[in-house]
Design a protein that fits this description.
about 220 residues, 4 helices, alpha+beta, five-stranded antiparallel β-sheet, six-stranded mixed β-sheet
């Protein structure tokens, strides 16, 4: 979890639970190299109003509440969500034929503020370029389900023609049933072991959307 989300969780009584508390509109740009292989992914995040309010107050942005930010205030926003703890995967996952592909640290970091909403962007380079002739899946999710990511814009494909990105949306009702079952099991374990709390299971992938990238042969 990002450091400022941890602070937000501590600031809101009962914040940790079985449903998300931060909502993030997500967009992707998939970037191909000259050989037609996927070499990087640009990630765009736009945060919900409550989270945006917390961030702007923390960073001293829009103190007059006019929904606008000065250049100095925008500079203060830069990197507000990029101080990632060790091991944090950036809530962005890429698989090729079902095998996870490592993404590099965030680069080309940016931030914005419009209409009272805070946004950010960053670039993640693949450890090795991948061939889109294989099954390439890009998915945004928080394993803890504290944050909920929704792909709300069309994925941009840069550097190669004859490619497409299709959005797959899970069955949220079925995912909710799985989550409830996981919580029931968790509660039973805690009671059996005489514990007040137990570690929340990683359930975020149950609710994860997928962007599936494919290219025509020889394109």
């Amino acid at each position: 979890m990002k450091h400022w989300l941890t602070a937000l969780a501590l600031a809101v009584p009962g914040a940790l639970g079985a449903h998300p508390h931060v909502f993030v509109e997500t967009g992707f740009e998939v970037i191909f190299n000259d050989a037609g292989l996927i070499e990087a992914v640009r990630v765009n995040w736009r945060y919900d109003e409550l989270t945006s309010l917390y961030v702007t107050e923390e960073r001293g942005v829009d103190s007059d509440y006019d929904g606008q930010a000065t250049e100095a205030e925008l500079e203060a926003l830069q990197g507000f969500d990029m101080n990632w703890p060790e091991g944090f995967k950036g809530d962005t996952y890429l698989t090729v034929d079902g095998v996870a592909v490592a993404l590099g640290p965030p680069e080309e970091i940016g931030a914005g503020f419009e209409g009272g909403m805070v946004s950010s962007s960053h670039l993640r380079r693949l450890a090795e370029p991948v061939d889109p002739a294989k099954v390439v899946v890009l998915s945004p999710y928080d394993e803890t389900y504290y944050s909920a990511y929704e792909v709300t814009s069309e994925t941009v494909l840069t550097g190669r023609e004859g490619c497409r990105a299709e959005l797959w949306v899970p069955d949220y009702d079925a995912a909710a049933e799985q989550l409830q079952a996981a919580l029931d099991e968790l509660q039973g374990t805690a009671q059996a072991q005489g514990m007040d709390e137990a570690e929340f299971p990683p359930v975020g992938d149950m609710f994860a959307q997928e962007v599936r990238v494919a290219c025509d042969a020889g394109s």
